[in-house]
Specification:
CATH superfamily of the largest domain in chain B: Response regulator
Number of domains of chain B: 2
Distance between the termini of chain A: 24 Å
CATH architecture of the largest domain in chain A: 2-Layer Sandwich
Oligomer: heterodimer
Largest sheet of chain B: 6 strands, parallel
Largest interface: A-B, 38 and 38 residues
GO molecular function, one term (chain A): phosphorelay sensor kinase activity
Pfam families (chain A): HisKA_3
Number of helices of chain B: 11
Order of helices and strands of chain B: EHEHEHEHEHEHHHHHH
Domain Signal transduction histidine kinase subgroup 3 dimerisation and phosphoacceptor (chain A): 23-87
Radius of gyration of chain B: 18 Å
Helix content of chain A: 55-70%
Strand order of the largest sheet of chain B: 2-1-3-4-5-6
Strand content of chain A: 15-25%
Strand content of chain B: 5-15%
CATH topology of the largest domain in chain A: Heat Shock Protein 90
Protein name (chain A): Signal transduction histidine kinase subgroup 3 dimerisation and phosphoacceptor domain-containing protein
InterPro entries (chain B): CheY-like_superfamily, NreC/VraR/RcsB-like_REC, Sig_transdc_resp-reg_C-effctor, Sig_transdc_resp-reg_receiver, Tscrpt_reg_LuxR_C, WalR-like
CATH topology of the largest domain in chain B: Rossmann fold
């Protein structure tokens, strides 16, 4: 029986690793393919506008409008990429990726710069995102503390609605993590995820 | 203007060379990585170097290349072009320098006018920051600096926003349809309200004001 449980946990973790690595690869594919092509296309349109600069039929203006559309497509691709796997999470880790959200949410991030595998960083990032999404915007400053200790990831999300514990637990259990509440309705959600 | 560039994406690199030439600039070097560009620029003088942030040497070749270039050629302007509009990279760019430096999105420099304007301002010593990035930082400052910024008037916020895009006083005056003198008054008031030291040089205080403003959205240092 013990052996069966052990294997199930391992297999769940393997599936989680595959899932998050695939998400990271998908983001990469978006960047290396369509995003770069669109950026190059914007330049070619600029060249066309330069050739058509004496056109009296408004061609340069139409071309500029097309370039604006390309910029909007790029912004949409960036938003999709962030929902799949934020490129900054992959490049620089949890601290910088969460700090980037500080421009959209009131958030203080204290991170020691430790790195974890893609599944752990992905699960932790989207768990914090879920907690932030449940808050009224700009009502309080959320405190996030990220540490790498001997057991793995220690993540504290403070000054939040602790009713979100269920959503956090659902996410972190996938990679063998645990979550608990300290404080009352507004308090701290503490997450621990074991890492090798 | 003499321009050198490095980007590992051939499609974008070639498009950029064509557009630079159409704008009347001389492309003195075009490489797929940072190391080759550094080597090339030891013999070939240039006014501005255009760098992709994510290129070899990995991981952020544009940033490490820029640090070497700034040390070797302090006069050389640096323009970062990236697919990513992240404050994380903006702050790293500003650590390399706050003069003759720029960070713009790849798809936003696709016209002769914008490209030349960006390059000219950088060559002349200004900071050029992608407006969507500057805008995002102004609108959502985080709580710790919010109090300080909240004391600024609406007009002072407009001025600070334009300063963070690297505009000169004359440029700001033009955009806001007011005299340069009143912009100077606004800026003194901004310096005062942000508590910037009055003994520092004007340019230095300007950079500090912009950094205060940028850091208000991101807790760093």
């Amino acid at each position: 029986m013990t052996l069966d449980t052990y294997n199930a946990a391992h297999s769940a973790r393997r599936r989680a690793d595959e899932h998050w690595s695939r998400r990271r690869d998908l983001e990469r594919q978006l960047h290396d393919g369509p995003a770069l092509r669109i950026a190059a296309l914007a330049l070619r349109l600029g060249l066309l506008a330069q050739k058509a600069r004496c056109d009296v039929g408004g061609l340069p203006h139409d071309i500029e409008e097309l370039q604006n559309q390309l910029h909007l497509i790029q912004q949409e691709l960036r938003a999709v990429a962030d929902r799949i796997y934020p490129p900054l999470l992959h490049e620089a880790g949890l601290g910088p990726a969460l700090r980037e959200l500080a421009s959209n949410a009131s958030l203080r991030v204290d991170a020691d710069g430790g790195r974890f595998d893609p599944a752990v960083e992905g699960v932790a990032y989207f768990a914090v995102l879920a907690v932030l999404a449940a808050l009224q915007p700009a009502t309080r400053t959320v405190d996030v503390v990220i540490r790498r200790d001997a057991d793995g990831l220690a993540l504290d999300v403070g000054n939040v609605d602790t009713g979100q514990i269920g959503a956090v637990r659902d996410r972190v259990q996938w990679v063998g993590g645990v979550a608990e509440v300290r404080g009352g309705l507004i308090g701290t959600i503490k997450v621990r995820i074991p890492c090798e | 203007m003499r321009v050198a560039l490095a980007d590992d994406g051939a499609l974008f690199r070639n498009g950029l060379v064509l557009l630079l030439e159409a704008a009347g600039h001389e492309v003195v070097g075009c490489t797929a990585d940072g190391d080759t560009l550094v080597e090339l620029l030891t013999t070939e003088p240039a006014d501005v170097a255009i760098l992709d942030i994510k290129m070899p040497p990995e991981p952020d070749g544009g940033l490490s290349t820029a640090e070497r270039l700034r040390a070797d050629h302090p006069e050389l302007g640096l323009l970062f072009l990236s697919h990513y509009a992240e404050t994380h990279y903006l702050l790293r760019v500003l650590h390399i320098g706050t003069e003759a430096i720029g960070y713009r999105l790849k798809e936003k420099v696709g016209s002769v006018e914008v490209l030349s304007d960006t390059l000219t301002r950088i060559r002349d010593g200004e900071i050029v920051i992608e407006p969507v990035l500057a805008q995002r930082l102004v609108e959502r400052p985080s709580s710790s600096r919010r109090d300080m910024l909240a004391t600024l008037s609406e007009r002072e916020m407009d001025v600070l926003r334009l300063m963070s895009e690297g505009r000169s006083n004359a440029g700001i005056a033009n955009l806001l349809f007011v005299a340069a003198k009143s912009i100077e008054k606004h800026i003194s008031s901004i310096f005062l309200k942000l508590g910037l030291p009055s003994d520092a040089a004007e340019q230095h205080r300007r950079v500090l004001a912009v950094l205060t403003f940028l850091r208000s959205a991101q807790e760093i240092g």
